[in-house]
Fold this protein.
Amino acid sequence: MQLLAATNLWEGVSVVEDLMCFSPMLALICTMLAVVITPIIAGRQPKVLAGVAILGTVVSLAFAWRVAGMVGDSGVSGLSPIERSGMLIADNLSIWFQFLVLFFVLCITALWWVGSADTERDAPEFFILLLGSALGMMLMVSTSNLLMMVIAIETASLPSYAMVGFDKRNRRSAEASLKYMIFGAISAALMFYGVSLLYGTVGSLSFGNVAQFTVDSLLDKHVSLALIAGLVCMLAGISFKISAVPFHFWCPDAFEGARIEVTTWLSVVSKAAALMLLMRLVLSLCAASGGTGFLQVLSPVAWTLGIVAAITCTVGNFAAFMQTSVKRMLAYSSIAHAGYMLMATTVFLYPFEEGAGIGVSALLLYVVVYLFMNLGAFGVVAMVYWQTGRDDFDAFAGLMRKSPWLAVPMVICLVSLVGLPPFAGFIAKWWLLVALGELDSVYPNSSLGGLGWFLVTVAVINTLISLYYYMRVVKVMALEDDDGPSYSSNAAGLAIVNGCAVILIVLLVLASPLKSMADRYAKNLFIPVAVTDDTAARVALDDSSIVEGTELP
Amino acid sequence: MDLLTLIVFLPTIGAILCMFVPKQQARVVATAATLATFVFSLLLFPTFFTDGSDEQVEEAFGSAYGTLHHVVRADWITGENFAIEYFLGVDGLSFPLVILTTLVSFLACLASWNIAQWKINKSPNAFFVLFLLLETGMIGTFVSLDFFLFYVFWEVMLLPMYFLIGVWGGARREYAAIKFFLFTLGGSVLMLIALVAMFLYSGHVVGEGGISSAYRPDVMLTHGTFDLIELATNETIQDYFNKNVGGPLFMGFKFAPVMFIFLFIGFAIKLPAVPVHTWLPDAHVEAPTPISMILAGVLLKMGGYGFLRLCYPIFPSAGEFYAFALATIGVVSIIYGALCAMAQTDFKKLVAYSSISHMGYVLLGIAVMNKTGFQGAMFQMIAHGISSPMCFFLVGVIYDRAHHREINRFGGLWLTMPKYGTMATIGFFASLGLPGLCGFIGEVWVLLGTFQAGTKFGWAYMYAVIAAFGVILTAGYILWLIRRVYLGREREEYREYSDTSARETFILVPMAILAIALGILPAQTVFNYTNGTLNLIVKHLGG
């Protein structure tokens, strides 16, 4: 019955409905055009342009809401008509991310309004770049086609390079941008090479086919070098976006040199987008290897991802120790958190078993909480920077006295980043640990055995390590003082950081709704499966039923 | 509103008020909040009041472990396959500690009244806000019976404590504060692993239709549980956790021993037991007087409470397995703490090391797993919760006047300050374990329990002898201390010192009265309220 429903859904897909799926992105594209046109009509007034961007983003959010309604309980909606091969898809994962990224555009605009609007000379360019990278990230999570993936990643990356170097007169900013771009170009080249190898080997660009081919060759123990090289190169490109070790070197430099709004922007969504893309790849691998060889095939992949995750968060945390700049420290902390989130992708569960979405759910929830923690922490760093022109530790001395309304939210955000109750960072980490533990509970005494608890141990030890450097900031703020004058901070800026702090408390006290929402969104996903004739097929996944990929006439 | 919810969150309400009152009024609001909390906590007494007859005891404490009073149960974070509850309740194990917490908090709050005269002159509002949040965390830890909630409250205590030591502490306050934080968090991350694992593993045995709850009729468990009572008393879960052969494995090790160790390390750091005790002398020496009182009076008890609430009832098999190791740690703590105390010249550090020694008795009493041992350990916790805040306050009184704590520079203080000297004698003799004062009963019970355990554990006799030797060491350093500080010739430089003020006397007298009352009437003041539950735990352990 479920199969039938899926097929009917497909048949019912009209062009209008297809375009609806794409509407949040279309709205963003229109907004970008509007941002270009507005200066011609209204002059280059930063606040007017910000208004246009906000309006466009809100419209895009409204469309995303509409798409969420269409996606509904089945979790999957129409595919783009282009080749009908999963070029563009709208499912719960992409919807969740769209809400996240669009909301974050609004947050970044607000932060920009507080700190840069009055001095901004290139507002149209800034917003085009911001919206452009948002568009690219949204596309990253809404595709199951390698070609589209490559285009999406580049759409997200190119504006990011320019944004990092946006302060043209600042040498560090230019240097950071150059470093970021060189690293980005190399990893993009690797990724293109990898994707072309994969296409040459598999003969298809759809995630499902690549996954099926990989699984089949692993089961046959006949793995061609081209396949391995292709996969590794492709993963390298994604790892660059995640800033997973050893592709993390750009991260601290780019984050330190960039303007603080840009740093905040990159630290959350660009990583989240890449992680969710990786999640979709992982899920298609899981779906492809259903059946007897499940563990045999997936264990090596899970272990690889797990070890990369463990190394990433450990390296990030240890490197953060030595930093003298709070901004740079937070850059390393974002590497560490990317490591935690990467752990969620190792929760390989055969997708049709109960509890299938547990890893996805943990990731979705973590990303949301992480958004608020990072926005709050970077927001405070930004306010201090705008006040003093510095972002080193000493700039924070005596902040508790100078401006308690900055220092207290900073403490809350930092403690939340450590992952301690009573703040939401704990809840995020908690569900991640439960997901990892579940992995070992479902597959005890297997080749996967021990991975989950190994990662749990790594995560909690890293929590302990990270406490020290986060508390260094708290120590400087509360325990030291340089007898400087009190701050008179912008009220809107205070509202942003304090809002984040309140949300972090509320998300712990009222943790249920977010969790159940994440669970619901994690369950019904578009999982790409292999198809013939390069036609698309979908699996509507829920607890009870297995839906095979359907062929289209 | 439920009584326990009120007791837990009344300090939080006080904290919110404290944010908005003028500087001078903060201490009044805080004192009112702590006093109100104390008064409300006294309302728990009638539930546990018995005349000693079997029926009344059974009514108050139940016939099996897991009988609770003033239960508050509500869903907190729930989903298809998990249910984290807001689950509070008290039994004979937690309720005396709740009263102790509210009392010590109230007295410590009074001890902070001279905050304006402290060297560190920072916002008193912030001090009292953090103080009250700390109290919420402490009470919450003792009354929450959902493991997740317990963990949250446990961690809630850390941050206020960090600031209270780090901002208002002595010269090396930053080092002491972060050391406290790192040590405690080091223990609690292990506890976090245990929390995840116990939840998931308890879900393994549930099966398709679920299993019926051990103590709640008509409730089916359909997934893993966080309920500490359920984990301890549900036979299916217990059999699974403690199965000797073919039981569950955690990363290749037997489940129960690994979990026990994870929890144990977390609690042992808080207790603190040698060799993870090193945060304590630093934290105590640097912390301001009222915070030292809270640390010694309440926070150390969380360790002992954790053993009795989590480690032993849930993993009895592991308790037996580790008995020797734990008793060894206990005995080493007793002797090592006492020897260290003897070597100190800093007044406060001496009291801090004596705490380590005294908490060693708690660990020893629990490790031998019999009624007398448990009762002694519990009594020792309460007695130490009264005598050590008193000692710390006595140190604080003289430090406020002399601004140093060098034992060898004092002398003849009894002559200079007669009231203070009298109180000090009571306080330190109570700590020493003089018969007739509170410290005595706990130590004797623990030693008796250890001897009794000799029939089960061959090493216990020897340990009882060694631990008894610790009593002599304690007497040694306390008598020597009293001679150096309070006796002898009156010194010129201290002659001008005023005797204890009315406020100081008001803080010392209740503790002195309790120290004597507990020593003379141990049954009426403590045992009657604790033994019921402790005996049930021992019965549950198969003893």
Notes: Residues 307-509 of chain A form one domain.
